[in-house]
Amino acid sequence: MDLVDDDDVPQLIEAGDEPVIPDSTKVPTDRVPLTIICGFLGAGKSTLLRRILTERHGYRIAVIMNEFGDTADIEAKTINVSSEEDPNAENSEEFLELANGCLCCSIKDSGAAAIEKLMQKKGAFDHILLETTGLADPGPIASMFWQNEEYAMGLGNDIALDGVICVVDAVFGRQQMEEDHAPDDLGVGESLRQVAGSDVILLNKVDLVDEAAAVSMEEIIHKVNPVARIHRTVRGEIDLKHIMGISAYAANTAQARESLGEPLRHHPHLHSHDDSCEHHSENQVTHYEMRGITSLQISCPVFNAARLERLDEWIRSVLWERRLPGSSSSQDIQVLRCKGLFTVETGEQYVLQGVRSIYELSKVSSGEDADLGVPDIGKMVLIGKGLNDEVRKSLEVLVAS
Ligand SMILES: Nc1nc2c(ncn2[C@@H]2O[C@H](COP(=O)(O)OP(=O)(O)OP(=O)(O)O)[C@@H](O)[C@H]2O)c(=O)[nH]1
């Protein structure tokens, strides 16, 4: 079942004389954060979730293990967890409250119905983890929980997308990405879409590879997605603060700068081409391509209001019409993820967040981050297909004009 039609006309920001720029201060704050966990087949998603469901970590998490986005029943494999009171509960109950405070949910309904049932238990958990099938593309699922007007009146009021986590197999990940060529409008397969559309990547099974192979894999991941944080894991062992509460979609200066700044600082041994360019503030398209997926990073000077409006128009054209403004022909551009942080002359800051055709360019509330030394230089990162030199030049001309 397709939860979201890629071709749907995006509804977030309507074209008009004035850009509709939401103020992040108006976003409700009492929502339950939701983290989507995707990953290659057999990469270790269930192992990670089993750990979360059984270890004492102090978090109250509702874990949904479901063939989400599919009409199939719950995954045949069982997460072998049991409560002390009823060791067979997972076989009979939709909801299993675990000794460590987590709530395990195996919900047969797919999609929104599963989440609606879970939200009836709101209060019993502080965070939702949603496991997707190994073949799932996280983009449409993320879109369902982020800036989706259809859900804004119902589900969207209760849930806030926190981030997308991708578990990558350190042994077979490279092969999976290279061989992956599912025929679709983008011409790339799911494993690449998962890496491109994620905010945090867990490079799992590093116990099975040597240091050189792990570094090489990190470099490949970084070149496909320069803004994702990469953590090495063995059997999903990771401090949960790295995958929960990351606010990857927040319209918040500190978070935006964090995700746009130095994504590889956990890995000082990595000095890729991208990093050196970054230090020189050089705008560039990554020279590495994996089945046409590239990233484009650009530095932006302080904007005036008119330029911000033109940038908004540029984004609409590229994300919605897949072409550069002023160009009559389709250039086959498809953006999977975009992020940005911009400062305008008045001192106000704007954060760009985008998942495919849906985006939000929102003003950061005044006073926020006032003491953090906000840099004058803004930055924008696009990840997707067709992001060639022509696209980069078009953006450079726009931000410099
Ligand atoms: N050596 C090693 N084995 C691991 C690690 N993580 C998971 N495994 C094993 O890899 C196999 C697949 O792990 P799963 O957690 O089932 O993977 P998955 O991503 O849920 O698989 P699918 O749902 O089929 O896509 C299992 O046999 C795990 O025990 C790891 O870090 N190191």
Automatic annotation (TrEMBL):
Segments forming domain CobW/HypB/UreG nucleotide-binding: 33-231
InterPro entries, A to Z: CobW-likC_sf, CobW-like_C, CobW/HypB/UreG_nucleotide-bd, P-loop_NTPase, Zinc-reg_GTPase_activator
Reactions listed under catalytic activity: GTP + H2O = GDP + phosphate + H(+)
CDD domains the UniProt entry points to: CobW-like
Start and end residues of each CobW C-terminal domain: 309-395
Origin: domain of life: Eukaryota
Keywords (A to Z) from UniProt: Chaperone, GTP-binding, Hydrolase, Nucleotide-binding, Zinc
Family under the similarity heading: Belongs to the SIMIBI class G3E GTPase family. ZNG1 subfamily.
PANTHER family xrefs: COBW-RELATED, ZINC-REGULATED GTPASE METALLOPROTEIN ACTIVATOR 1A-RELATED
The protein's name: COBW domain-containing protein 1
Protein species of origin: Marasmius tenuissimus
